[in-house]
Design a protein that fits this description.
Layout (H helix, E strand, L loop, with lengths): L11 E4 L5 H12 L3 E6 L3 H14 L3 E5 L5 H15 L4 E4 L14 H28 L3 E5 L12 H21 L4 E7 L2 E2 L12 H7 L6 E2 H13 L8 E4 L6
Helix pairs in contact: 1-2, 1-7, 3-4, 4-5
Length: 250
């Protein structure tokens, strides 16, 4: 009687800021690809629990953990909890981020520091803490950048600078963490949200669509598809910044 083939362990992903909007869609997309998924949240517990229910309905495991990406201790604790629960971490998606409109000469030190703490330092800390687990399984890191990290937006200088720094961090991590871990970045353009609770579209949305060669704004599903490519595609691809912007940055 032939012996049964050993079961292949399910991969596990950690998505920061995965309770809603793009992070939620990324978490769902990775779950549909057969991964167990952990998401973090800060002020969106109800939405996080709703996302957990959606993911569990797919047939994989899901955790929702409170975490502030500005806290080294909280990041360290969260990574340990995910690794303990799933036995591994194959994919880290640094999605949690902040955006703010401000007149450049009026940006305060607190505003500047907050933007970099969330958008740049947080991904660095999460990657550093997850690195031993990722190295053990030839894992992946995907950072969520922005077309704003490639274009100068005068009314969002601190945001643009923080995302440009994240793009460079992606490339330096790709060199430093090779050959065990691939590191890439998805840089969305204007992404529209239509789910209840995500808030109305900003008044500026039509102007972005008018400037986009593809004639419309992007969707969370399209952004998540790019993340899935880096999470499951060739491990040889590393250090890349993929714009998901319909040509907006051209």
């Amino acid at each position: 009687m032939p012996s049964e083939a050993p079961s292949i362990p399910r991969k596990a992903a950690l998505v920061t800021g995965g309770a809603k909007r793009i992070g939620r869609e990324v978490a769902l997309t990775l779950a549909r690809a057969g991964m167990d998924v952990a998401i973090t949240f800060r002020n969106s517990e109800d939405q996080a629990l709703g996302t957990v229910r959606e993911i569990e309905a797919i047939g994989v495991r899901c955790l929702a953990l409170p975490m502030d990406v500005r806290s080294e201790d909280e990041i360290r604790r969260t990574v340990a909890q995910v690794a303990d629960a799933f036995g591994r971490i194959d994919v880290l998606v640094n999605n949690a981020g902040a955006i703010e409109k401000a007149v450049l000469e009026e940006i305060t030190l607190a505003q500047w520091d907050r933007m970099f703490e969330i958008n740049t330092r947080g991904p660095f800390l999460a990657a550093r803490e997850a690195l031993p687990h990722l190295k053990a399984v030839q894992g992946r890191i995907i950072n969520l950048g922005s077309i704003g990290g490639m274009e100068p937006w005068a009314a969002q200088a601190h945001y643009c600078a923080s995302k440009a720094a994240l793009h460079m961090l992606t490339q330096t991590m790709a060199k430093a963490f090779a050959p065990e871990v691939s590191v890439n970045c998805v840089a969305p353009g204007y992404i529209e949200m239509h789910r209840t609770g995500d808030g109305p579209e900003r008044p500026i949305a039509p102007s972005f669509a008018a400037r986009t060669p593809m004639g419309r704004n992007g969707t969370a599903e399209e952004t998540a598809a790019a993340v899935l490519f880096f999470a499951t595609g060739p491990h040889f691809i590393t250090g890349q910044i993929m714009a998901v912007d319909g040509g907006l940055g051209l």
